[in-house]
Amino acid sequence: VQLQASGGGLVQAGGSLRLSCSASGRAFSGVGMGWFRQAPGQEREFLAAINRNGESVYYPDSATGRFTIFGNSAENAVYLQMNGLKPQDTAVYYCAGTTKSYGLAEDDYEYWGQGTLVTVSS
Quick one: which of 71, 75, 69 has its CA closest to 52? Predict the structure, then answer.
């Protein structure tokens, strides 16, 4: 599975972005998908996951409800809608795929996109 993340960019605090992750090589229906981010000097952080049939979504306990993951099997794509962005959301955002039904940790995922940079200005 090859993953391509896109949609990052520069946004002002309080703004929104929608990140996209497209896949080739295997339909999303057979892969659980997740979003992570990594800020400079920090560990990669789990943000959201959707299971392989797209029926269930998962967020970390620390989630504030600003980020929403959803998928479109017809487009073979998964999205991360981000609202109310803050400067501390500045990071490289990665989509990832797992042959498990879903994953909640970095080690659960076998496939990774190249990352897309999100910069939130104050």
Answer: 71
Beta bridge partners of 111: 97
Task: Tell me what percent of the residues of the chain surpass a pLDDT of 90.
Answer: 80
Express each pLDDT in 90-120 by its tens digit. 999 999 999 999 999 999 999 999 999 999 9
As to burial, measured by CB atoms within 10 angstroms (0-12 exposed, 13-18 middle, 19+ buried), residue 29 is: exposed
Supply φ then ψ for residue 98, to 5 degrees. -135, 145
pLDDT value at 28 more than 70: no
Q: How far is 17 from 83, CA to CA, in rounded Å?
A: 7
Identify whether the C-beta of residue 121 lies closer than 8 Å to the C-beta of residue 12.
yes
DSSP result, 3-50? EEEE--EEEETT--EEEEEEEESS-GGGSEEEEEEE-TTS--EEEEEE
- Joined together, the tokens standing for residue 97 give 């795929």
